[in-house]
Design brief:
Layout (H helix, E strand, L loop, with lengths): L2 E2 L2 H8 L13 H14 L7 E2 L3 H8 L3 H13 L3 E4 L3 E4 L5 E3 L5 E3 L6 E2 L11 H11 L15 H13 L9 E4 L2 H12 L5 E6 L3 H9 L3 E6 L8 H11 L3 E4 L13 H14 L2 E5 L25 E6 L11 E4 L2 H11 L8 H12 L1 H26 L4 E2 L7 E5 L5 H9 L3 E2 L1 E2 L12 E5 L4 H15 L18
Parallel strand pairs: 1-2, 7-17, 9-10, 9-11, 11-12, 12-13
Antiparallel strand pairs: 3-4, 5-6, 8-14, 13-14, 15-16, 16-19, 18-19
Amino acid sequence: MTTSVRGGQLARLLGQWHSLPGRHRSPDYAALAGAIRGLLTDGRLPLGVRLPAERELAEALAISRTTITAAYRSLRETGHLTSRRGAGSWTTLPNGHRVASSGLWTPDDDMDMIDLGVAASAAPVELVPAARAAADDLPRFLGSAGYHPTGLMDLREVVAAGYTARGVPTSPEQILITSGTQQALDLVLRLSVPAGAAVLVESPTYPNALAALSARRARITTHGLDAAAGWDGEMLLGALRQTRPRLAYVIPEFQNPTGHLMPAELRERLVAAAHATGTELVVDESFVDLPLDGTAMPPPVAVFDRHSRVVSIGGMSKAYWGGLRIGWVRASAPLVQRLAALRVGVDMASPVLEQLVACHLLRDAETIVAARRAQLSFRRDALVAALGEYLPEWRFTVPAGGVTLWAELDGPISSALSRAAEDVGVRLAPGPRFGLDGTLERFIRLPFTLAADDLTEAIRRIASVRHDLDRATRPAWRTPTVIA
């Protein structure tokens, strides 16, 4: 069934679409059409959504209906919109494009892009030997049906041992193996968040977490992170006490996208506040293995949990490889069993062979992760140097770990800059993808997972289009931003 977006909702998503440097040189209808195309191609407006009627959108944006009519006509001409008299206008996939595995758009013949939309690294060299060793292990599992809803005991033991080594005594019965961290989060939300329940998240935060919460029809409230300082402890705890949410989702280790590290004192107070408000605390530890420059790591949030309020989720996408779809949940043993029962109705179980590969990689974690940290540190420094050379007016805090840098731009231009960058072969994830309703236009996420030369070249190209966003020569369509 086709869903609809109201005029006020679309206006909030569009933000300052007509208030950009040099925008007076383009007609308003062209600027509006370009902004809507940007929302479509980076996933903020999905396919098959009915757009508001022309009169309704004109009132929401306080512009003439003639401008809306011309913008919709432009979108129909480029294949982004289909209209039928009496039925309205809804978003469509332009010719020459397909829906990729990410759920966003990509051309049938993809261009050679420097992709800064994906915050994930290539596979380590140890992956192939691990896969061969896993294949040798496989015969001892072939006598069964191969369905293990909670995961292979071999892998659960390795993951549990990792938590124990970090100071959180954990048994294998407290571990559920999932098909990636995203599925871990989705299962927890399915179990814990009924429609209309209040949920507290950071802002900015991981876009796919927002998508999962929206799918559960959660009532989302946010705690804003300062771009330079990170969490304001009193405001975060105050938000918990005031809203008393059913669930709170946080990324305390090198937060995505800001790269901040939550201090130990706030972790302890956060767990205590969650217990007092009856809030389930979901802690995303995707980046916990990636401190850089010898950064000292605070204790895991679960260390302070005395009442089974903390559910930790993690996986292998960031420190190892995104193509290895292995994640996990650490929780109380009864909750793990409830999640496993729910999981049977979703995908039955994770692939046995991939779990065996994960076992071998995790047993060699010290070597693999050390190499990954050195690689990321070098690439981060190259990105910082390029920003200093080509875009010195941008402000940012150099992250002490993780894989992303959160840059404050010199104006509310994130979406427009992302569209312009596509024309010079760079794919970006604009700031509003990490928040709600068109906010964060002054920010952009820059991962440092690509080769140093590619990062430098990408920043050089971005700088080349920064100062005149209206001279792009190929406005008909854009490739999607994939967020990972």
